[in-house]
Amino acid sequence: MGILEVKGVNKRFGGLQALGDVNLSVAENTVHAIIGPNGAGKSTLLNCLVGKLIPDTGSVMFNGQSVLGRKPFEINQMGISRVFQTPEIFGDLTVLENVMIPCFAKRDGAFRMHAIEGVQNERQIMEKALAMLDDLNMADKRNMHSASLSRGDKRRLEMAMCLVQEPQLLLLDEPTAGMARADTNNTIDLLKEIKEKRDITMCIIEHDMHVVFSLADRITVLAQGTPLVEDSPENIKGNPKVREAYLGETA
Ligand SMILES: Nc1ncnc2c1ncn2[C@@H]1O[C@H](COP(=O)(O)OP(=O)(O)OP(=O)(O)O)[C@@H](O)[C@H]1O
Ligand SMILES: [Mg+2]
């Protein structure tokens, strides 16, 4: 039984079957990559995992609890954080302020503190945010406006914003999209470091096979909304079905 269990998920957009009978089991403390050509349904699946989209049929269980229909702060409190395809940071705020924000959530019309272990007041939030920046080697940039960060550092900041919530599951939608090779390699190193230092499960959507094979313990290949194969990176590499699924992209 995985920490995340997706069973029989179907999702249609009008006449288009974006997801067709998706089953996925993500084992605790592993990195599970989801790959597939453009339009395969990867982001749709991720949106179903964070309650943003409700499947037409099927279930998504995290630690035995359904995520479907939950509000974003409830998803966070369950222990799930998500890194978006384009870093979602507040450009006008400093790096430190950005990391403090996820510790609050709008609930019942007011901003309240998230229940994060050992954090009861604003001072402790600031200390926690600073410790997180230190952990990700960004403490020296804490007073910079985040809009002026490099793309790689914006990604690092977004990671800090996720990790400050101490998630059990980190979902990443193309974390290296549009990055230069150097920033991609930095992101790979950062994710490796996060994996080594913490008890964390990661589910990563990625087009860059160098990233996938550097990080993944397990890979699911989606094609036209349906899992084509799930296997170890070694077996995926030599699988002719996988090459077939990517032909549309390379043709
Ligand atoms: N809100 C929506 N309304 C209608 N169609 C949608 C919607 N979201 C996604 N789709 C369609 O569903 C299919 C799957 O889209 P999705 O974004 O999940 O693919 P993807 O695998 O993430 O692709 P990419 O690699 O380009 O990011 C596509 O055909 C897309 O056009
Ligand atoms: Mg996508």
Write the layout of secondary structure elements.
Layout: E1 4-13, E2 16-26, E3 31-35, H1 42-49, E4 57-62, E5 65-66, H2 72-78, E6 80-83, H3 95-100, E7 104-107, E8 110-113, H4 122-135, H5 151-163, E9 169-173, H6 181-197, E10 201-205, H7 209-215, E11 218-223, E12 226-231, H8 233-237, H9 240-250
Parallel strand pairs: 3-10, 3-11, 6-9, 9-10
Antiparallel strand pairs: 1-2, 1-4, 4-5, 7-8, 11-12
Helix pairs in contact: 5-6
The structure holds adenosine-5'-triphosphate and magnesium ion.
Adenosine-5'-triphosphate (ATP) binds at residues 13, 16, 18, 36, 38-44.
Features:
251 residues; ATP-binding; transport; 35% helix; globular; Rossmann fold; binds magnesium ion; binds adenosine-5'-triphosphate; ATP binding; alpha/beta; ATP hydrolysis activity; 6-stranded mixed β-sheet; 9 helices
What does this structure look like?
The protein is an alpha/beta fold and 251 residues long. α5 (151-163) packs parallel to α6. β9, α6 (181-197) and β10 (201-205) form a beta-alpha-beta unit. 35% of the residues lie in helices and 27% in strands. It has helices spanning 42-49, 72-78, 95-100, 122-135, 151-163, 181-197, 209-215, 233-237, 240-250, and strands spanning 4-13, 16-26, 31-35, 57-62, 65-66, 80-83, 104-107, 110-113, 169-173, 201-205, 218-223, 226-231. It has 9 helices and 12 strands. The protein binds adenosine-5'-triphosphate (ATP) and magnesium ion (MG). Magnesium ion (MG) binds at residues 42-43.
